[in-house]
Amino acid sequence: ILNVEQSPQSLHVQEGDSTNFTCSFPSSNFYALHWYRWETAKSPEALFVMTLNGDEKKKGRISATLNTKEGYSYLYIKGSQPEDSATYLCAFNFGNEKLTFGTGTRLTIIP
Amino acid sequence: ETGVTQSPTHLIKTRGQQVTLRCSSQSGHNTVSWYQQALGQGPQFIFQYYREEENGRGNFPPRFSGLQFPNYSSELNVNALELDDSALYLCASSLGAGVYNEQFFGPGTRLTVL
Predict the structure, then answer these.
(1) What are phi and psi of B40, to 5 degrees?
(2) In this complex, which of B42, B48, B105 lies closest to A43 when CB atoms are compared?
(3) Which pLDDT does position A2 carry in this prediction?
(4) CB–CB contact A101 B43 (8 Å)
(5) Which residues face B109 on adjacent strands?
(6) A13 Cβ partners below 8 Å, 6+ apart?
(7) pLDDT per residue over B1-10, tens digit each?
(8) Which of A9, A57, A62, B54 has CB 3.0 to 4.6 Å from A48, enough for a Cys bridge?
(9) How many Cα neighbours within 13 Å face the side chain of A23?
């Protein structure tokens, strides 16, 4: 069974603070890792598609790193804002059409 | 550019009934994937359609079936509904079925089976 695990399950962060969370995946047969942000009552929004070991991608205050050899990716949010409150999902692609999702990290920003 | 849309938004059915959920893909996208998200879990892959053909299936029984139309919109059909089928059903479209293609999600259909 190939699992994708995310930690922590939930997180409360003071507005203005920076935070990060983890996605762990099997290190063999890696093809791609996707990060999504999912706000309540909206569609999941793609943040990054990461493919190469050592990849680092950035979108505004959000960035992500990838280590395929040890099987993890970190998502960082710098200077958290209330609009960052969402569930952050990672999804692993084993080289076929299927994305295998983690259960997500629910982030709440406290004003 | 129109995003991915799904209908209906919410649906209540009883055990044993059949249901059809619909998804309109983003303009220019030829691939649609369907996912089921049960409470407390991440989305689980049901199947994918690429150019009107099924292109891979997850661990779901045959009573979950689908279609993709020439305009690349798609339907998910579930027969003989069970209580455990209560979930949020998401569809995602992409430009191609490749592993690196970004998938664009709709807002989902919430199905409740009583």
Answers:
(1) 80, 5
(2) B105
(3) 67
(4) yes
(5) B89
(6) A19, A77, A80, A107, A108, A109, A110
(7) 569 999 999 9
(8) A57
(9) 31
Q: Is A82 helix (H, G, I), strand (E, B) or coil?
A: helix
Residue B106 to residues A2, A3, A16, A84, B39: CA-CA distances in angstroms?
26, 24, 31, 20, 18
What pLDDT sits at residue A95?
A: 74
* CA neighbor of B94 nearest in space, from B72, B65, B69: B72
Q: Tens of pLDDT along B55-93?
A: 999 999 999 999 999 999 999 999 999 999 999 999 999
Between CA B31 and CA A22 the distance in angstroms is: 29
Q: Which residue has the tokens 């706000």?
A: A39
The conformation of residue B114, written as its DSSP 8-state character, comes to -
- Reduced DSSP (H G I as helix, E B as strand, rest coil) percent helix, strand, coil of chain B, to 5: 5, 50, 45
A99: which chain B residues are within 8 Å (Cβ-Cβ)? Answer: 33, 35, 43, 45, 103
Strands B19-24 and B74-78: antiparallel
Alpha helical stretches, state H, chain A: none
Percent share of chain B, pLDDT over 90? 88
Of residues A31, A45, A102, nearest to B99 (C-beta) = A31
| Chain B residues with a Cβ under 8 Å from any Cβ in chain A | 3-4, 33, 35, 40-45, 48, 50, 55-56, 58, 90, 97, 99-100, 102-108
